[in-house]
């Protein structure tokens, strides 16, 4: 798989919240790489709303970083798939997060980045077995496995130690 500026990363709410709360983690690094034009950042309005709602209980600086990422990154907002399409993905993932998987796959995201071990990461093996054209990973795993393969890797923000 070629990793370059056209590689699409779908950001789940857990990753957006983590990036907003910690500017030094892997989630923030991947948003910085998207800000620099290294990847195509994708999400949905529902994911952004969920992120904003969670961040209401976080420090003001976290909310500021979240809103700053909305402004500074050229986001590709994917539509919410219709109910019939959502139903097709219900066999792979918890109903609470079916909209995330469906939007990412239907939006042709190559990677779905999440920190949600309980629902989304737990569905990764079923998604893989089903042959769905997406890879579900934690940001740290993406950084270790794919980030160094980017054709412009030396120009991307440096991974934190």
Task: Give a quick precis of the structure.
Helices cover 45% and strands 12% of the residues. It has helices at 13-21, 26-35, 45-55, 60-72, 83-89, 98-106, 124-129, 139-145, and strands at 8-11, 40-44, 75-78, 111-113, 135-137.
Descriptive terms for the model:
161 residues; alpha/beta; Rossmann fold; 5-stranded parallel sheet; 8 helices; 5 strands; 12% strand
Can you offer a commentary on this structure?
The chain has helices at 13-21, 26-35, 45-55, 60-72, 83-89, 98-106, 124-129, 139-145, and strands at residues 8-11, 40-44, 75-78, 111-113, 135-137. It is globular and about 40 Å long. Helices cover 45% and strands 12% of the residues. By secondary structure, the protein is α/β, with parallel strands linked by helices. The model has no long low-confidence stretch (mean pLDDT 95). Strands 3-2-1-4-5 form a five-stranded parallel β-sheet. It has one domain (8-155): 5'-nuclease (Rossmann fold).
- Overall, the morphology is globular
Which fold does the CATH topology refer to? Rossmann fold
CATH architecture: 3-Layer(aba) Sandwich
Mean pLDDT: 95
Using only CA atoms, what is the Rg? 15 Å
Looking across the biggest beta sheet, what order are the strands in?
A: 3-2-1-4-5
Element order: H for helix, E for strand? EHHEHHEHHEHEH
Could you name the CATH class?
A: Alpha Beta
Overall SS class: alpha/beta
The proportion of strand residues reads 5-15%
The main pleated sheet reads as: 5 strands, parallel
Kindly report how far apart the N and C termini lie: 26 Å
What's the number of extended β-strand segments?
5
Q: Write out the CATH superfamily name.
A: 5'-nuclease
Number of domains: 1
Number of helices: 8
């Amino acid at each position: 798989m070629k990793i370059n500026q056209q590689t699409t990363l779908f950001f789940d709410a857990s990753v957006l919240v983590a990036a907003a709360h910690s500017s030094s983690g892997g989630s923030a690094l991947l948003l910085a790489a998207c800000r620099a034009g290294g990847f195509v950042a994708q999400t949905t309005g529902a994911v952004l709303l969920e992120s904003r709602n969670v961040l209401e209980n976080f420090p003001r600086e976290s909310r500021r970083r979240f809103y700053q990422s909305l402004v500074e990154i050229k986001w590709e907002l994917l539509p919410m798939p219709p109910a019939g399409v959502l139903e097709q993905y219900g066999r792979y993932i918890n109903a609470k997060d079916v909209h995330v998987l469906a939007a990412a796959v239907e939006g042709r995201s190559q990677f779905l980045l999440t920190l949600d071990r309980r629902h989304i990461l737990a569905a990764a093996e079923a998604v893989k077995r089903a042959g769905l054209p997406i890879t579900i990973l934690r940001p740290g795993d993406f950084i270790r496995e794919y980030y160094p393969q980017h054709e412009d890797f030396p120009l991307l923000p440096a991974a934190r130690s």
